[in-house]
Amino acid sequence: MGIERTERQLMVGRWSQAGFGPIARRRLCAWLCILSSLAYLPVAAQELEPRAYSPNPIGLNFLLLSVGHSSGDVLIDSSLPLSNVEAQFNAPVAGYGHTFGLFDHVASATIAVPYVIGRATGDVGNDQREAHRSGVGDTQLRFAVNLLGGPALTAREFATRVPRTTLGFSLTIVAPTGQYDDRKLINIGSNRWAFKPQLGVSQPIGKWFVEGYVGAWLFTDNPDFYGGARREQQPVGTLQGHVSYEFQSRLWLAADITYYAGGSTTVNGIGNDDRQSNSRAGLTLSVPFGTRQSMKLSWSRGATVRVGGDFTTFAAAWQYAWLN
After folding, report:
1. Structural domain harbouring 8
2. Are 209 and 202 in contact (CB under 8 A)?
């Protein structure tokens, strides 16, 4: 009871003294819930993933270890008594994937689990607030299959293939397994399911590789948002484009861009003016080490941001691959 009163009632008391009524307080909670999703941006609409539908031989296993650092401002409605909102977080991620044949097409399944260490600061009226969080984030599962141009090939067959246009489909599922406490405004986990169906087309042109993806994030409700409220979120549509150049086998550099829009939220039936219409741009470099290992380095930043995190992100990922 003491912890709940400290986290919830004292905040409400400060807002009441500042002249914020019940509706205003609920709207402030809804806006501050933006911060609760910041720690999971690497798997949300802001992601940039070049060569996500590149064909691979069947029977390939890969282990992934990565770490990302993001920091920047959080842009919100200027009419609200919130200002100078900033956040930064580090997110080590461990993942595993496997490729296999599905109806004569190559398919893959992956699982990734992050551990998030984050900090958010901001002014609520005349009060400065700060929050630190660390813990296991929501688990991400991804299934992908090449519908066209990606036949199921053994490693020997794959080595002699001629690259061609491919069309792929993927479904990403984010399960609510992360650390979550409804007594806190800012959490590591999201306490809801999220689904992202996506189509991606890839076109090789000599040493160049051009890609375009279209997808959408779909969310279930969070029935236990701060203080027992119900939070709903509209879908977020996403577009991605990538152009990469392969210097030699598995050594490539990509220029990346993404645009995402939608995602308006409602808390206990009260709508918020928080529709996103944002874009990001970045670079990705993949460097092989021997036949089984590779390192991927990436950088990205917000290009245009209406609402949400205007972050600069650096990430490094190590991958080890082997065949069955």
Report:
1. 2-323
2. yes
pLDDT digit string, tens, across residues 49-66: 999 999 999 999 999 999
What is the arithmetic mean of pLDDT over 4-24?
46
What would the pLDDT profile of 221-265 be if each residue is shown by its tens digit? 999 987 788 989 999 999 999 999 999 989 999 999 999 999 888
Instruction: Name the domain count of the chain.
Output: 1
What is the per-residue pLDDT for 275? 85
| Res. 12: pLDDT tops 60 | no
Q: How far is CA 290 from CA 13, 66, 245, 249, 294, in A?
A: 61, 19, 20, 11, 8
Angle, CA 283 vertex, CA 314 and CA 70 arms, to 5°: 20
Mean pLDDT of the chain: 84
CATH number at 242 reads: 2.40.128.130
> pLDDT class for 37, splitting at 50, 70, 90?
very low
In this prediction, residue 267 carries a pLDDT of: 85
Bridge pairing between strands 139-148 and 105-124: antiparallel
